[in-house]
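Protein chain data
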Amino acid sequence: MENSVELRSLGNTGLKLSCVGFGASPLGSVFGPVSDDEAIAAVREAFRLGINFFDTSPYYGATLSEKVLGKALKAVGVPRNQYIVSTKCGRYKEGFDFSAKRVTKSIDESLERLQMDYVDIFQCHDIEFGSLDQIVNETIPALQKLKEAGKIRFIGITGLPLGIFSYVLDRVPPGTVDVILSYCHYGINDTTLEDLLPYLKSKGVGVISASPLAMGLLTESGPPEWHPASPELKAACQTAAAFCKKKGKDISKLAMQYSLCNKHISTILVGMKSVEQVQINVAAAAELGKGDKDEQTLAEVEEILKSVKNQTWPSVRFSVMDVKSSTPTVFLAIMLHRSVLTIVICGNCTTKFFDDNTKMD
């Protein structure tokens, strides 16, 4: 294993995570098919370059991500105590269920798919879509029992609105929740997670930040059509990407390095499915470690994004529909969530999404 990736402590857990984390959602073929051989090669390369943290969920690819990751980890043959695996509960292909009964069953299902006896971190997945009081009073106590049984080592919660984290952490006994996973809130366009870091440190809670590319906003190709960002934010990011390309720079690399700079964030989680992607992400971290950071281009990009800085969007539920035809598809989605009725009418969709319409931060 080439230790070219910095290791950082995760709160009070005692775990040391590679600052670049392997997001395994693409192994569920959610962004195109991935063969077992490709997955195994990507995981092997991750280990070779010093990545020791792998994150998945039964929701990713309707359990396929867990299965493929488990198969890849077994094929590579690295001793179990030399890497850290995180999976999740509460969000499934069928919908959300944070009941004690379901999450207790969920860990056994995940362990079977991952071919493991335990996972290091077990996280409640996108808790803003459930009852936060249920998370506090039912779900987390159930996870504590799993911890006592040796099936999980640490407990985490994930979601988009930053307010959900303090809501839960202020209502559970100290040390109960070990980790939070936030996404799209620490990058060039949005640094609002930074305001929460002192609070999380005071609680001894480790911080994982996912989606440094803001779900595709900070890429040359741009975000998918369903991306819930405002037209203004999308346009500004597109302008920034074009500016970087004209200079011969890669905005994705710039964004990755920006996110990696904050040492109070234990790991930056990014989706990977190929050897090349692993190499690109690790190279970005390695260059940063050598002080090779393009401060001038970063400052210019920040200026372009200044008018939309810290602009976010409501949490959304989405799942890819298996629509092969180009025939216009129209659907009506109605959801009642925390007494907020949301109606979404979408035409020409290959993706459906539900606007949660609740912002807690």
In short: The chain is about 35% helix and 20% strand.
